[in-house]
Amino acid sequence: MTRTLDDIDLTDRVLHSTEDLSEFWRDLRHTKPVHWHQPADGGTGFWVLTAYEHISAVYRDTKHFTSERGNVMDALRAGGDSAAKRMLSLTDGRRHTDVRSILMKTFSKRGVEQVGERIRGITRGLVEQALERGTCDFAMDVAAPIPLMAICDLLGVPEEDRWRIFDLTSSMVASETPEHTQKDAWRNKNEVLFYFANMAEGRRVEPRDDIVSLLTGAQISGSGLTEDEIIFNCYSLILGGGETTRMSIGGAVVALVQHPDQWRALKNGDVSVDSAVEEVLRWTTPSMHMARTAVADVEIGGSSIRAGDIVTLWNVSANRDEKAFELPDAFNLARSPNKHVTLGGGSHFCLGAHLARLEINSVLTSLRDLVSEIEPVGEPRRIYSNFLGGVCHVPVALR
Ligand code: HEM
């Protein structure tokens, strides 16, 4: 059934998990690419942008839009994000540039390569274990541990705490069941913040070679970062570093199973792994939307957006925009050019882009080198969220 503008509520977390909205997005792109959306709860309405052209322009437009009140729909509709101006993604201007350059030491291409060997080794080991068992839940057994281990290594989170952190973060922006409450998310978020507050305290006394120590020791114009900045940025890294990449890796396997010709192209070396990584990112689009607040009146696509309005940018639609991609609904690992917006754009472009690409690359390389056949042995299960999109269970047999 094609959904129409009148019967859809984009804030509904179940909707994104249970329905294929591709026709809805296509209709919007063609008929109302800048659309004012009034959710069913009667609360704050917001603009919905679906065209690639408009979305990439807003990512770059720091004159008319800010991230400092929040960058996702739910937080903005609730009156603003509690981490505003204390977390990289929710800080603009000079402070943003300064904090980002501190973290760039770790997340630059060269910085990330330092953990490359370890990530490739972990990935190979996990795929080998899955092969030995014959069947596995690729999402839980392979996709989840890779980004978790990588970001925990970088942050300095000890091995014994990692799966507890995974349980807490994986239920913050999404859940495996429709009955997830906001209260659970807040409780889990507080526990993670508290965890990093303790860790930062320890690193002040005894610094090590990790990001928590980097942040506690960093100086901007002679002053250290605030306690809140340190804790919220650790929280953001563990969340941004873990959940999104997990969705892309799980989604990659689902896509390869559904497109055997593309699996063969990867296996035979007809496409480069680098190019395959970009198509996996475009195809899976784990951050379904990002959001901004207008700080000045501005016109987009003939619609007048007023200062104070919430503007949501639907990456899932932009990445299938026929004006930006040839045959956008084809999963084509050789796609070139492939300028997807999966990792955002402009000054807030994903800090973890090199790390995410390295992780997905290590999975595709291990699959290509070690696996001859991937066969589904059950239905993949999607998570429930209006922000994060993807699969949490992918039962497959590997041979
Ligand atoms: C920013 C997506 C992996 C950390 C972003 C943004 C997007 C995004 C769309 C832009 C946010 C905005 O404009 O408001 C993704 C996806 C990933 C991924 C889809 C995986 C497939 C990672 C990893 C890390 C990370 C591995 C860290 C280890 C961050 C941070 C920002 C960010 C800190 C904020 C950057 C800034 O404001 O300057 N990410 N991300 N992400 N991402 Fe990622």
Automatic annotation (TrEMBL):
GO terms for molecular function: cholest-4-en-3-one 26-monooxygenase activity; heme binding; iron ion binding; steroid hydroxylase activity. The keyword Heme applies. Belongs to the cytochrome P450 family. GO terms for biological process: cholesterol catabolic process. This is Cytochrome P450. PANTHER family: BIOTIN BIOSYNTHESIS CYTOCHROME P450, P450, PUTATIVE (EUROFUNG)-RELATED. Keywords: Heme, Iron, Metal-binding, Monooxygenase, Oxidoreductase. Gene3D superfamilies: Cytochrome P450 (1.10.630.10). SUPFAM superfamilies: Cytochrome P450.
